[in-house]
Amino acid sequence: MKILITGGAGFIGINCAAYFQRQGHEVSIFDNLSRAGTTQNAEWLAAHHPCRLIRGDIRYYNEISRVFAEHGPFELIIHLAAQVAVTTSVANPREDFEINALGTFNLLEAARLLNEEAVVIYASTNKVYGGMEDLRIAEIAGRYAYHDHPEGIAEIRPLDFHSPYGCSKGAADQYCRDYYRIYGLQTIVMRQSCIYGYHQFGVEDQGWVAWFCIAAALGSGITIYGDGKQVRDVLFIDDLVRAYEAAYRERETVAGKVLNIGGGPDNTLSLLELLSLLERLKGEKIPVAYGDWRPGDQKIFCCDISAAASMLAWKPTVTPETGTERLFAWVQANKGLF
């Protein structure tokens, strides 16, 4: 099978590329290598799991359409190229729009015109649900929890784009849905929660599990904004890649669908719980500072993954404890990259 991964030198991208290359598929990655860590990731991929690297920018239609013309057609397209941080979108909303919304539109148009048989998996985000200020939240055993949604937030939750990032990703999310309805393009939208794992160069406002692991391994301090009782469902990268594979396998069932993909209620962590876990792994206390709550920071987000579990015959297999141990060990073994 021929596979195209946009943003293929990013954290999720190279894990996908390595996995599918090991399965014997022909993998092409499209990336402009602008984000920190992508050059190192591309070098690692070339050394261990050779794939075709195509330098280009998703903001320019001629650059992505040339990939289809010269290297297609592809059976599977995994669209990961994105601007990924809310804070960055606030500082530069035009660039955020051009990468996330226009870039996705460019990809969809290229697929529609040049590769209409492809399955397109789009990595959307739980941020499309907005702040969800109407939900009742309780504090139980030192962590926040939903009062009325024990299984998490389902796909039927109304959309409420918040922040330029939420708007750009949400627009792309809906374009992908509509390209199935209007043009018959086999799109699958995956609204992803906190994904973490190997080769993730997390920063303070994006990739928080990796950021905590990196700070702990390097001996630098961690700042917690709020009280640390905030909870997120987390999903290890290996489980996400399996979900992509399952979506392609079940494409006739899930084409045109939107699926929440995350750890679900059985795989959640609070900030304080992750800190405690890292202190056990490191064998010493980690310096922590506290700051004010950041605007829009939710006390809890956990997605309901029952639709994905049913349609894909998939569920997470890596616990937060095991996944954190694996990531922390990888960071310690690769300190020179940071």
What does this protein structure show overall?
The chain has a seven-stranded parallel β-sheet with strand order 3-2-1-4-5-8-12, sandwiched between helices. Strands 9, 11, 13 and 15 form a four-stranded mixed β-sheet that branches. It has a two-stranded antiparallel ribbon with strand order 6-7. The radius of gyration is 19 Å and the shape is globular. 43% of the residues lie in helices and 20% in strands. The protein starts with a strand and ends in a 5-residue tail after the last helix. With 338 residues, it is an alpha/beta fold. The protein has twelve helices and 15 strands. Helix 1 (11-22) runs parallel beside helix 2, helix 3 runs parallel beside helix 5 and helix 10 (271-282) crosses helix 12 (320-333). It has a single domain, classed as Rossmann fold (3-Layer(aba) Sandwich), CATH 3.40.50.720. The mean pLDDT is 96.
